[in-house]
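User: For a benchmark we're assembling, each entry needs the component sequences followed by a predicted structure for the full assembly. Here are entry 17's components. Please fill in the structure.
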Amino acid sequence: MKKLAIVTGGAGFIGSHLVDRLLIEGWSVEVIDDLSTGSKANVNPKAKLHMLDIRNPNAADLIRKKKPQVVFHLAAQASVSVSVKDPIRDAETNLHATLALLEAASETKVKRFVFAGTGGALSSEHVRVPTDEEHAAEPASPYAIAKVASEYYGAFYRLAKKLPFISLRLANVYGPRQNPHGEAGVIAIFTKRMLKGEPVKINGSGQQTRDYIYVEDIIEAFMASIRHKDAIGPFHIGTGRETSVNDLFKKLADLTGYNRKPGKGPADIGAPTRSALKSKKAYKELGWSALTPLDEGLWLTVDWFKRMQTVQTQNTFPKSGKRK
Ligand SMILES: NC(=O)c1ccc[n+]([C@@H]2O[C@H](COP(=O)([O-])OP(=O)(O)OC[C@H]3O[C@@H](n4cnc5c(N)ncnc54)[C@H](O)[C@@H]3O)[C@@H](O)[C@H]2O)c1
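Assistant: Structure for entry 17:
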C-alpha cells in the first residue's frame, strides 16, 4: 500500500508544488485547504482535496481517521499585515489550529510532522546577515510570533509526546503559481504587472534586500526533511544571498521587456532593511542547499506567467513551471 501524506495548504503556492512532488515519488496525497488564498486549479487531480478550514475540528479528526505517515503543515494565514490588523484571527489559524493538528498527529503516531516556519519574518535590524539559527528569533509581527510559538509547541510535542516535529524556516519563496495579488510575492506582483505593461511601484528606497529562493529548492528541503528522520531543526532554508528590490526590478524588466520607470511607494514600516538566511545547518544535517541561481529561477517564473497569460485566454491553466 502507498504511504499517505497529508498536506495542509496543498492548494496554495508552495503546498501545490509539494503535492506534485510527493505524487511523483509514489506517495498517496490528501490535501486540507479552505481555498482562502489557494485554488482548486493548483491541486493535482491525483491528490484528494478536502475543502476544510484547519480551525474546524474536522481537520484534526481527518488526521486521526486517515493516520498518515507524514503531515506537512503549510496552511496559514500568511499575511503579515492581516496579522497586525487582527492578531486574534491570525492566532486562531496560525497557532490554535496548528496546536490541534499537532495533538491529532501525536495521537495517531505520525512519523513526521513538517512545519512551514518563517525565516524572513524573524529578521530584524540587529541580526548578522546572512542569519543562522544561532540568532535568537526576534519576531516583530503577530504572524512571526505565531510561527515561532508553533515551533515551541512542536518542540514540546517532540519531547513530551514523541512526535517527530521539524520546522523549516523559509526565506522569500518565489516561482510559478505564486499569487500575484498577495503582499509578500514581490516577484509575482512585478512580473504580472510588467507583462501587462502596468505601473510598478517600488516601496521605500528599493535598496532593502531579501533572500529570494526558488520554490523547487524549497520542495527539495521538504523532501529532505522526511528522509532525515532524526533531524530536529529549526532549519534556515535560504540561499544566503541578498538581492535588492531595485535589482529585482531591473532583472524582471529585462526578462519581460518592460521599459517604464518604477513608481515610488511608501517604505514598509517595521520591515528590516536587510535579510538573508544562512543554511549551513540544513546542509550539514539535511544534505540540502539551494541550487537554483536567481537568474534561472526568474526566467522560469516569468516564462510561467507568460504562458499563464496566454492560456488564460483559452481557459486552461499551466500546471508546471518547468522549462520545456
Ligand atoms: N511564500 C513565502 O515566501 C513563505 C515564506 C515563509 C513561510 N511561508 C509559509 O509557507 C506556507 C505556504 O505559503 P504560500 O506562500 O504557499 O502561501 P499560500 O497562501 O499560497 O498557501 C497557503 C494555503 O493555505 C490555505 N489556508 C489558509 N488558511 C487556511 C485555513 N484556515 N484552513 C485551511 N487552509 C487554509 C490557503 O487557501 C492556501 O492554499 C505558509 O505557512 C507560509 O506562512 C511562506
